[in-house]
């Protein structure tokens, strides 16, 4: 290497390390209920005006980055062609945009000195036709687009084209020294990009605009957000669309150590901004100091009755084992197709009703939910009756008190394994103060999810979910074929 090149590298390193000084930052996530006007253009413009209103209020609390949800500007538009615009790539440093929606967002970012994250429908002229994407866009405080993420894992969006992870420029470093990754909605439950994005060790914080319609009991909004933070040990800023008739609510700010800094879930239509300080060296002492919206921040849930919740629970396909809770210290295992989970559960002797039913269950097999392909899950579930179909459903309030639950699974250490620890209470929030670890051991991996010292929560579900959403390429199918053949010939 010539001296000249060395010098160049050196100065580059210095610039980088100056930028790498991290500081705590103030974030806002907006759960947003979109306005629907008569024409698509008017819908987006009405929502843009609301966004600017939120940005102005966020500035009063010195917010440095604000996150709006997926489909927030367009509403749940099913015909992308009526809404989609061209969006320049992050490499283009320009702050002048052809489309005035982008211009408006860029100006708001500059005027309020704030990183602004929005989701839009994007169009791109291809050779023969026009392609449409579900796209997150990040503006920096200078008004430039610094990141763009085209949703990789679409969920019932037939007119859209999935983004390509290699082409997505969805990682950026802010002027306050934090490196963020961005992905959207169903992406959070797929190895690519939810785990691959963390292969860049600089990424300590994830931005998650979503329009998440919850499914009981294993795919509830706050539950999945909390699970991702526990599994990935990063901070998470999750902004959900508010559409209670579609089961969409549940946004939050999560710290890398598993603390839920702030959350919001409601059955009442409306928008809600949560603001909190996020520590870059996480501790449990985090401040939640302001909010702006239709209700005061309360870390709470209100009028949940109106929050529609879909259900995805094929009880006839799962293996169940009823727990004998009068044993108080329970150790049981349940398996389905060689996927096994061991549970250790302690029940309080002072609050015990032996007629109440808790089951443990396991499943491994094909999924029939959106574009998920193969699922594994095992969980403790509360049941209303001996009818297994009532397990993990709404409005179950068992009086028997669980003091601690530990679930453990020991699986092959696959490169693309992506396991999430999920928990849900009767109030549709995660169980607080849980701990989740994974350890590699002789080609296997052991996942442990623990809630000790459970307070008053009435647990609906507590377990581990994995989505083996691997698209088999022709090559890997060939390899699998050869392996199967070898096995048969043995
Ligand atoms: C929106 O589109 C409609 C129909 O194309 C048009 O009549 C109307 O003028 C547009 N509104 C604005 C504010 O541009
Ligand atoms: C918005 O309103 C238009 C016109 O009233 C209607 O056709 C469309 O379905 C609505 N979209 C949503 C997402 O509610
Ligand atoms: C979507 O909207 C465009 C433009 O209004 C229209 O030509 C097209 O038929 C629509 N597509 C669908 C699937 O509704
Ligand atoms: C939280 O919400 C409940 C129900 O809406 C209300 O009664 C209570 O006063 C709120 N608490 C705070 C601290 O705002
Ligand atoms: C449940 O456990 C209790 C205490 O160990 C025992 O007395 C009882 O027989 C068990 N019930 C069943 C159905 O196994
Ligand atoms: C359950 O109770 C037993 C006996 O008191 C104790 O050894 C064990 O650690 C407890 N389990 C958990 C998960 O806290
Ligand atoms: C115990 O649970 C059963 C089944 O849920 C219920 O019918 C019964 O009323 C409960 N008993 C008490 C004392 O709460
Ligand atoms: C979680 O743990 C922290 C620290 O031990 C404690 O201050 C907090 O009250 C706990 N939260 C809940 C909901 O149990
Ligand atoms: C995970 O590891 C931490 C630190 O070693 C420990 O405190 C915690 O109990 C472990 N959690 C589980 C579920 O094993």
TrEMBL record:
Residues 25-280 form the CN hydrolase domain. GO terms for molecular function: hydrolase activity. SUPFAM superfamilies: Carbon-nitrogen hydrolase. PROSITE patterns: CN_HYDROLASE (PS50263). InterPro entries: Biotinidase/VNN, C-N_Hydrolase, C-N_Hydrolase_sf, Vanin_C. Residues 1-23 form the signal peptide. Keywords: Hydrolase, Signal. Gene3D superfamilies: Carbon-nitrogen hydrolase. It holds the Pfam family Vanin_C. PANTHER family: BIOTINIDASE (PTHR10609:SF14), BIOTINIDASE-RELATED (PTHR10609). Belongs to the carbon-nitrogen hydrolase superfamily. BTD/VNN family. This is CN hydrolase domain-containing protein.
């Amino acid at each position: 290497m010539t001296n000249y090149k060395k010098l160049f590298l050196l100065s580059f390193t210095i610039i980088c390390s100056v930028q790498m000084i991290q500081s705590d930052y103030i974030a806002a996530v907006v759960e947003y209920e979109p306005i629907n006007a008569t024409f698509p253009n008017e819908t987006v413009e009405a929502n843009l005006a609301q966004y600017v209103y939120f940005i102005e209020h966020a500035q009063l609390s010195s917010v440095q980055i604000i996150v709006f949800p997926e489909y927030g500007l367009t509403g749940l538009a099913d015909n992308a062609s009526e809404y989609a615009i061209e969006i320049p790539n992050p490499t283009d440093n320009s702050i002048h945009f052809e489309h005035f929606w982008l211009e408006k967002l860029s100006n708001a970012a500059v005027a309020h000195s704030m990183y602004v994250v929005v989701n839009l429908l994007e169009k791109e002229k291809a050779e023969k036709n026009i392609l449409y994407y579900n796209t997150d866009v990040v503006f920096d405080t200078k008004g430039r687009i610094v990141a763009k993420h085209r949703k990789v894992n679409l969920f019932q969006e037939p007119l859209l084209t999935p983004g390509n992870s290699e082409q997505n420029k969805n990682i950026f470093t802010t002027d306050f020294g934090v490196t963020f990754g961005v992905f959207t909605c169903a992406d959070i439950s797929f190895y690519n990009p939810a785990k691959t994005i963390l292969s860049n060790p600089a990424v300590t914080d994830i931005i998650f605009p979503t329009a998440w319609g919850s499914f009981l009991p294993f795919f509830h909004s706050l539950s999945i957000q909390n699970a991702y933070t526990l599994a990935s040990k990063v901070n998470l800023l999750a902004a959900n669309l508010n559409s209670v008739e579609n089961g969409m609510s549940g946004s939050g700010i999560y710290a890398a150590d598993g603390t839920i800094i702030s959350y919001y879930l409601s059955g009442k239509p409306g928008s809600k901004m949560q603001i909190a300080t996020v520590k870059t060296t996480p501790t449990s002492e985090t401040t939640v100091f302001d909010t702006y919206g239709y209700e005061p921040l309360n870390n709470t849930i209100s009028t949940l009755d109106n929050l529609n919740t879909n259900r995805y629970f094929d009880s006839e396909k799962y293996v169940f084992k009823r727990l004998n809770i009068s044993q108080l210290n329970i150790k049981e295992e349940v398996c389905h197709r060689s996927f096994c989970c061991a549970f250790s559960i302690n029940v309080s002797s002072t609050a015990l009703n032996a007629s109440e039913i808790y089951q443990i269950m396991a499943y491994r097999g094909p999924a029939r939910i959106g574009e998920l392909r193969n699922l594994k899950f095992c969980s403790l579930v509360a049941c209303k009756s001996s009818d297994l179909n009532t397990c993990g459903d709404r409005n179950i309030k068992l009086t028997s008190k669980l003091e601690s639950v530990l679930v453990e699974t020991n699986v092959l250490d696959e490169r693309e394994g992506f396991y999430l620890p999920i928990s849900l209470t009767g109030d549709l929030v995660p169980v607080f103060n849980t701990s989740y670890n994974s350890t590699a051991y002789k080609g296997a991996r052991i996942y442990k999810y623990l809630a000790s010292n459970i307070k008053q929560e009435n647990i609906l579900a507590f377990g581990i979910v994995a989505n083996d959403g691997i698209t088999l390429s022709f090559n890997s199918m060939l390899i699998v074929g050869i392996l199967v053949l070898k096995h048969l010939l043995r």
